[in-house]
Design goal:
heterotetramer; A alpha/beta; B alpha/beta; C mainly alpha; D mainly alpha; A: alpha/beta; 10 strands; globular; C: two-stranded antiparallel ribbon; 14 helices
Amino acid sequence: MSAAALETRGLCKSFGALTVADDINFRLETGARHALIGPNGAGKTTFVNMLTGALPPSSGRIVLGGEDITAMGQAKRVKRGLGRTFQINALFRRLAVIDNVALAVAERRGVARRMLRAASTHADVCAESMDLLATLGLAEDASVRIVDLPYGKQRLVEIAIALGLKPRVLLLDEPAAGVPSLESHRILQVLDNLPKHIAILIIEHDMDLVFRFARRITVMVQGEVLVEGPPEEIAKDRRVHQVYLGEQHHG
Amino acid sequence: MAELSLRDVRAGYGETVVLEDIAFELPERGALAVLGRNGVGKTTLLATIMGHTTFHAGSIEYQGKPIAGLPVYERCRLGVGLVPQTRDIFPSLSVEENLTVATRPGRWTLARVYDLFPKLAERRGHWGNQISGGEQQMLAIGRALMGNPTLLLMDEPLEGLAPIIVEVLLQALQRLINEDSLAVVLVEQHAKVALGVTQSALVLNRGRIAYSGPSADLLADPQRLTTLVVA
Amino acid sequence: MSAHAGGYSADPRIRWIESLPWIVAIVAFFALPEYLSLGARILIYILYALSLDLIVGYAGIITLGHSAYFGLGAYVAGILAAKAGIGDPVVQLGAASVLLEIANKATTLTGGADGLSGVVVAPILGLFRFDIFGKTAYLYCLLVLLLGWWLVRKMIYSPFGTSLTGVRENSLRMHAIGAPVYWRLVLVYTLSATIAGAAGGLITQTNQFVGLNVLSFESAGELLVMLILGGVGRIYGAFVGPVVYLIAQDFLAKQFPEYWYFGIGTMLVLVVMFARGGILGILDGALVKLRGRP
Amino acid sequence: MEAFFASLVSVAFHGAALGMILYVISVGLSVTMGLMGFANLAHGVFAMAGGYVLTTAISRFGVPFPLALVLAFAFVAAASVVLERLLYSRLYAASDLEQVLFTIGLIFIAVAVARFIYGTLQQPVALPDYLKGQFPLLGRDFPAYRVFIIVFSAVMVALLWFGVERTRWGAMVRATVDNRAMAQSVGINTKRLFTLTFALGSGLAGLGGGLGAEIIAIQPSYPFENLVYFLVVVSVGGLGSLRGPFVAALLIGIADTACKYWLPQYGAFPIYVATIAILLWRPSGLFGRHA
């Protein structure tokens, strides 16, 4: 078996007596289109925070492209190719769209600390950022500040920043959250056109989106993986129905 | 006159829109179940009625009086009570203080709440953060009742509780809906449970209404329920 | 746009209007010889305010401990404040106070509360003596300020400057794009402290006297006032603020100290309530209106 | 040995008096900063105002001392309501920087007004005869006024704690500090509660300023000079806490007195160092709510 893009082995997290992630063995293949679903409080956010390094696991290991990153800081994981987007926009609100993306690009290219040449003369950073915006249909908005940008487009900038890091693995945390339904098709388009070689894990509530996008789905319940499989199987799975309909478990 | 009536409501957090085109009427003493997968806006709907969200458009009327522009505490004083999903017990207050701090004159008194949840009477001296999840849930409900609401907004009151506690709460819930002149909006993941205790139901999907009709119809049509609530 | 935000789409070239401060400074040198010592003081405070603007305006961190660097612009202090001071003005205040106390108690070194007089300044490069009318001092300060301004301006337009505004706007996201936020802050504190230290050095050199008040909380507060008055995060706010403040102080404070304090307090309250961009912010707003843009 | 013991008792006594004053002044700051998240550097202005009210009432209008104390509280509390409604309330959502600047502005204004009315000299406190002289206790003599300060403050503290911990109003305040949104949901008008709490906190500062006028001199630069002490009490004690600042104030009062007595050559240096050390160790204070 070749190395997965991202893998967790026996990942656990507990706060005192409360276990929020219990022995999670998860495998994200190279170029995967994978979705993580589950009811509120299932531990999805905790899981993602452990992947990105925002939260240290109680036990278990996280392996990125064959390298153990369990003890690595957030910034280093990003440098190793682990990118993420945020459920609630985490943008540089008073900066222009281009600067939002260029900050990420410059960080990746290792020029972000330079202080002798003007930022705008770093042609490579600017060009790459503009290209990225163009592929997301944001080229015309490059010099608009985020605060002046419609919310739907802000969600796209959220994705653009993550792409600026050239991730091998991209975690999308509810990419369409809070977008009026009429505008959400644009986000779906963008997701469909993401580079094929990036392994993508999407955390999403919208089942239309999940079943359209994902080729594999993992269902989490109460900190554990309930079931994993292709969408057809998940749609038929009785346990999944129980979770969502709230039928009482007997035995 | 309807207890609660929403028309073309559009609301969210800041500029984020979570709810769109929400409209329904809840008759006096009515009980409404709000269903849907998580993240579809159920909690936001309750928060909007209570006044915790950014209101973009539409109207909310409580007993014929527009309340969308009122501050939260005014809505509470008019008779809207909230049992939040996260319970939000005040940790620096004792169990009893959690109840008395919410007191408004009316039928519901400390004694009646203790009668409904005897467990709370035993725990009256404990701090708000020193009681179990089930007791916190009872306290959250009791606290809302102390404000003597005519409209009770309940957000997943059965979530994460042991079956035996669920049983106790369900009984209390039945009692509230049947015996008391309370109108209830019940958000619940356990769809069948919620449909069982309500007359009408609302299913949300991506912040919009996907179904609105009698609870019994939905309960009688498992196929439809599955399609609406699962995928 | 006259607010100098830097960034990847900003044109870093120096605009003609940016020569205005220097022209004014030179005109003042010839036209107002009797005010040169005040002029030198203003130039020093501009440099000092510029250093503060880096931290407050660009990195977005409030500090009330900046006078510590003004007194002792040192690399070590930069790390201390960056570590201790993020989000907590009280610790910074404490740091400044400690330095104040050290200076206060190290009597043999600083002269204690009486101040340190008799600072003898050697001629600059062995050539230009500090004259009693302060001509040398003025030009010397102007030169150092020019250098400081050039450095700060260059930095603000650089990728580093942009990443600082990134930290100000959303430090969480900076972490998530792999930026070592902590070290960026250490770096900017160090730079800022160095410039503040240089300004402090200038005060000593031109006054040939160090008073303990350069380390005090009031001094840090006063500087913050000057910067806010001019406008935060826009380079030239640090020019306008000290000019207005110090000239007003020079004319008013000596005769009517209570009116002076009252005036400056009222001005601060008004700026916070009604004109959060400071004087330059007001001018900006007026220009936008004049041009008839929405 | 006997001499050392005597000085120990003396330091503890004078330190306790200073600590009590610091607490009465600072407790309002702790609550308003914890409750409203407002960085109110101008809190010392209220204490100074209380001091001026008291000294003026006694020396210029011949008001008896106890009534002057009441006036100091009432006048400052009333004035703070006006300030809160007119100015502070507009800045609750503003950034820390703006709040800091605004309150520094208020300090400047207050300093100017004080200088204009009273000049730069320290205001003398005309104590009534029954508070002058010595008070014999356990075979020692203690200055009667300091004894009064300690006893009176202790009563105030007891009343305050009772009010906050045993009354419904106190429960409302604690509920609002815990969770403002939920407090509104149970019908608490948090805006009005803010105003009242602010007035109470400011009134106490005024009372403390008046009561302590003999220990902490009343003069125009008061709000600047003592700001560090108030902030240290609050930040070491922990924001929003009632007991934390009490312990912190006593510690600081005694430590400050001890330093001045035994280590005068170091001034306030040890206190500042201890403060920094404590805050580096526990950034939200000894009793902070959000660790």
